[in-house]
Amino acid sequence: MPTSTDNIILSFQDLDIRFTLRGQVLNAIRGVSLDVFRGESLAIVGESGSGKSVFTKSAMGLLDANGTIAGGHIWYDGKDLTTFRTEKDWLAIRGKEIAMVMQDPMTSLNPLKTVGDQILEAVLLHQDLKGEAAKAASIQALAAVGIDDPERRYKQYPHEFSGGMRQRVVIAIAVACRPKILICDEPTTALDVTIQAQILDLIKNLQKKLDLTTIYITHDLGVVANVADRIAVMYAGDIIEVGRCEEVFYDPKHPYTWALLSSLPQLGVKGQDLYSIQGTPPNLFYEVHGDAFAPRNPQALNIDFVERPPFFEVSPTHKARTWLLDPRAPKVEPPEHIRQLREKGGAIHD
Amino acid sequence: MAKYIGKRLLRSLLTLFLIMSIVFILLRQMPIEGYFQNFEKMSALQIKVGLQQLGLTDPLPVQLANFWKGVLTGDLGVSHKYRVGVDVLEIIAGKMPLSICIGMAALCISLLVGLPLGILMARSTRTRWKLGDKLGTVFVVVIQGVPAAIYYLLIQFYFSRLPGASMFFYMDQPTTWILPILSLSLGNTAYYAMWLRRYMVDESNKDYVTLARAKGVPTAAISRKHVFRNALVPLVQFIPTSVILTLMGSLYVESLYSIPGMGGLLVTAIQGQDNTLVQALVLIYAAISILGLLVGDLLMALMDPRITLGKKEGGR
């Protein structure tokens, strides 16, 4: 996997994002740094409200009107996207460089326009084509996402498509923009389980064929295991652990990652209650002190409540923000089933 | 489609039948004093003869049957009071063109001013101070909140002092047409502005707008091609309502400015208990309203591909 710095396509540095809600300030993203490598497939996982969508939307200038980037940088192609102010700046990025597939295919297409028109709109904007050639390219895009009889389907409206087919259309629109990065914001959450794998396969194939960098946003670890090269775990507006897929799955270091993996239904024992994380995420309207997960972590150290841990490197590709990795910290072992996971994983990867 | 329209037309006729029968019966419950100008001085025999001439002595069902027979043969009877002995349709035919002319002019102004105002307000909701939206809302609230009767009077009172304007309507002075048409259009203007703004704000918060932004469509194009177009669909349903509103407004505005139109006529006819004339006018007003509703539904079906009329397939 590429890891050298000149292979970084998108880089977030100490990003702070704030929202103003009824006069109160919510710190949605708190000093997050993350590098995205060219051609990789990165998954950002975290529970609802952890800020994963907001984080990626900031790279497209799609934050809601009450949200602002309060600090940090987003580097893309030598430009700092946080300095973009006008719509004209962003139009050079949106679609052209970074495209997006959204969660709910039922609502992400305009119900009153034919799917053909909606793909054509993207083709006309981003491919140097006009008239019949543009139309042919749009039909081609429909065929490329595996829709049968694309010429007839081109003239149909979204309501004439099933959920899975609509998500294919949304992907066709995103791909028709010819982007370098494809952000998939929970691309399968709203879909039937049987369709989910098909859609993930489609994205994987397109990624290979078109040399895309993909960023998945999801809370479904099953999806992650399927598609991701690397995983970034997000909690309360911060990335707390990042590493290659097998590193995070089989050798997790942060207590939150342990808890998250423990909640996997696949790890449950029949007849026993599923594991669930006690407590609730911190209220981001208030300043978070120390490790944001400490109040929910039964093994939290005293320092976890006082000072925010820095990133400790586990391997060149794996790092985690937890005091447990400090040489002075007492040795806290992950729960039994997490260790078993590691052994199993070791067996798988030997 | 044709089958659906046929069904709807049949149902419309039934509605019309019910409305007319109810109005007919209600009119027959009016005190008989109203039919005669010098009731106190008339003898019982004179009154009986008078009522007989008006056809009011027959049992109610017979009267009603006669009325419907007349309607089917295109005979709505003659006026008894307004212009004695003249066919009511002839009276109305002389008045209707002017009313339609004024009503349509008002409706056009409502659309031409109301829609742009709605767009302006919706766009302004995304700006920092939302000034356009706030000013527009003040206008809408005043027009919707203050009873029309009051602002009609205020407009007539204050604006008729402007050069060219007048308290009354004169056929041959076009400047005197402005105030009544303007008064008549205000209600609908506010109505269109309010609902277009609301639907545009609704639409612009939908996912497909985010997707359009994400694929790099400029805001102005999104607003035009996606948001405005989609917000218009629920709005076309209001067109019939606004036709009805214009009709209702014209009843009052026409008598206010002494416009020799249909609206003023209905008020006069009711006051004089000129039953045949009232019936004919109500029939026309009801028919226009019902037709308006039908046209509104058809327009909506034309604009929204998800609506298929009469067929049981597709959609969700």
Question: How does this structure look, described?
Answer:
The complex is a heterodimer of chains A (350) and B (316). Chain A has a domain at 233-349: Rossmann fold. Chain A has an eight-stranded mixed beta sheet. In chain A, strands 2-1-4-5 form a four-stranded antiparallel beta sheet, with no helix packed on it. Chain A has 350 residues and is of the alpha/beta class. In chain A, α3 packs across α4. Helix content of chain A is 31%, strand content 23%. In chain A, a hairpin with a 2-residue loop joins β11 and β12. Chain A is built from eleven helices and twelve strands. By secondary structure, chain B is mainly alpha-helical. Chain B has two domains: 2-72, no CATH class; 88-303, MetI-like fold, CATH 1.10.3720. Helices cover 72% and strands 0% of the residues of chain B. Chain B is built from twelve helices and no strands. Chain B has helices at residues 2-28, 44-53, 60-72, 88-124, 131-145, 148-159, 175-204, 207-214, 219-236, 238-256, 262-271, 275-303. In chain B, α4 (88-124) packs antiparallel against α5 (131-145), α6 packs across α7 and α10 runs antiparallel to α12 (275-303). The longest helix of chain B has 37 residues, at 88-124. Chain B starts with a helix and ends in a 13-residue tail after the last helix. The mean pLDDT of chain B is 88.
List the keywords.
heterodimer; A: 350 residues; alpha/beta; Rossmann fold; 8-stranded mixed beta sheet; 4-stranded antiparallel beta sheet; 11 helices; 12 strands; globular; disordered C terminus; B: 316 residues; mainly alpha; MetI-like fold; 2 domains; 72% helix
